[in-house]
From TrEMBL:
Residues 113-221 form the Tectonic-1-3 N-terminal domain. It comes from the Eukaryota. It comes from Lamprotornis superbus. This is TECT2 protein. Keywords: Cilium biogenesis/degradation, Glycoprotein, Signal. Belongs to the tectonic family. Pfam families: DUF1619_N, TCTN_DUF1619. One of its GO terms (cellular component) is MKS complex. PANTHER family: TECTONIC FAMILY MEMBER, TECTONIC-2.
Amino acid sequence: MSGQRVNSFFLGNSSGVSFSIIVSPRDAETGKLQLANCSRSKRAGDWNLDVTPGVNTSKVTVSLSRTLELCLPNATECCPSPLCMVETLQVLACRGSVMLAQLLIQAEIFANSSFAGNVSENATIIPNQAFKPLGSCPCNLTAGACDVRCCCDLECTPDLQQLFSASCFTGVFGGDVNPPFDQLCSSQSMEYTPEWFPFLCVQSSLDNTPFLGYFYHGSTSTPKIPSFKIPLQTSPGKPFTGYREGDPIITEEDEYFTVPQQSMAGQCVGNAPVAYLHNFDVKCLTSLESYKEGLPHDVRINTGTADFIQQNVVYRAITDRGKFITESENLAAEVLCQNVTFAEHYKFTWKDKNIEQINVTVFLGSLCDGEILTQRFTVEFLSLNSTDGEELFENPGYQAGKPVRAANLNASDPLGSLNIWQPAGRGLCASASYRPVLFGVDSYSGCILEVDINEDCSFLRGNVTEKLNALIQATHIGKRDNSSYSDLNDWVEIIRLDPFSSNVSTGGLKGICPDIPANLNIRIIFAKVGAVHGVPQQQILAVQISYSTVLWQFQCGIGCKNTLSILPITASVQFIEVPAQPPPPVTRYHKIYAEFDCNRNEVCWPQLLYPMTRFYTGEPYSQCLAKGLFLAFLILLAAITSNPWFSKLWKN
């Protein structure tokens, strides 16, 4: 031990067992310890013995009761030298005069002192662990003291090592940091050495082992981890080749140009990059406490040709705050208000693969503490050749994220609409607004219709059908984004499938109505028909509308005091992509090349050599290898004996 206290444990029943401690001096002539007897004394010199009995284990504590301070002039009861005490202790466990257990303790304790010398500023040189072990004695855990059973500890004197020389730690922890490995020719540590071991063993020095050293210095590749800060798409010196559809717009600082957008979970993301030629119109809820400013409007944008343009920003004040403040708590007489952004509208003017101009309109207003603000952010890409915000024929196909064009060609005003719901508040159909169907965006929305328990089923079906049909104010859908109202070939007629009715009678029961067309399904089939300036052009081929019916049943609440129940009605939009040209039909008679198909034949030629691979586990690999070599020898022998010259040689 090297401290003032050490603990050990006595295993077994300690009932009737007495513990004692004695200081065992060494014999001056032989150097051996004197024999101990059961003295039953728990104090010896400056040492105390404490025993904490347990059920099957007793804790034995040996402690030193003197101080370990260095002696000052004319002082007593102190340490005259740094090595304050060197003694050998024996702890005995006896039952009567019979010794049950004995613990030998070698105490080597130094005096307490503080460092008063000069600190060296020389840096410690750490060797390369690949070729030289950093710690040649891992079991040496205590600085300035001997660790028990650590025979490689240089701080253990020969006298101390005699106490545990037969119980030294083995392996790497005991100091054997560079053991010979099994594949070494001079190693005989393998329990079962195969017969071919002398031919395939490794002849190497111990300086190059799996524990230390590298067998092969191969070339390493740095992993390419994507970063949110994307540099320009080309290396410096090479001109920027322009944007393609869906590419993120880059700023002058080689960062994304971001505008708040909605994520897949419906939440707004403030640092979402703007994609080239992708329009969007989003609304985000915020309060004064959680309000954050977006990207500054003085940031310059990369046009696509390594040039930069400034945003043209126009600031306007909000006159009607009621359109943006959706919820307001009871405000106190004095409340904190701040001028914030209510809406931002971005218009990008583009030509080919470049951005020509950016116009931004920012609406500002006052937001007070306790109010909920609905911010609106819109991004719109307009062609340079457009007039009054309407695209010309330069971009004929649909682009992802743009509204689907609809028309009512049977009316004097052909302008139509194809919408889905955008619920607000309680989600009731009476207060729900509409939003257009965007090309390539699968959508699912709905609202809640309040139904009375005495509602007539026929009236309910007509009411639900009327609300679903209000979403589709059109008879035709435009094949392209620039379909002309005067050309009927630019439009496809909407195929309507009426809801199924089973004519099931409820027998006069209230609160039950079958065959309610509560689900509207819109399926739009489209295909890629070409490309303009490398941008794929997509065209709508067909549109189908169908209904799914449900059985509505009145849901009774607690006590059935409420005579109103709810009926959720939904609308889903699904875009289905098909090939632009139909695939060639399969002929009635064609040859199936299944000769080498292992699943259709009993004989599998591609797996002829499978038993000779490591994946075959039916037999030991050495037997498979031997059988394979023997089979190869028989094939070679058959090939030689079948040769004509071999028969002539055999006759001679």
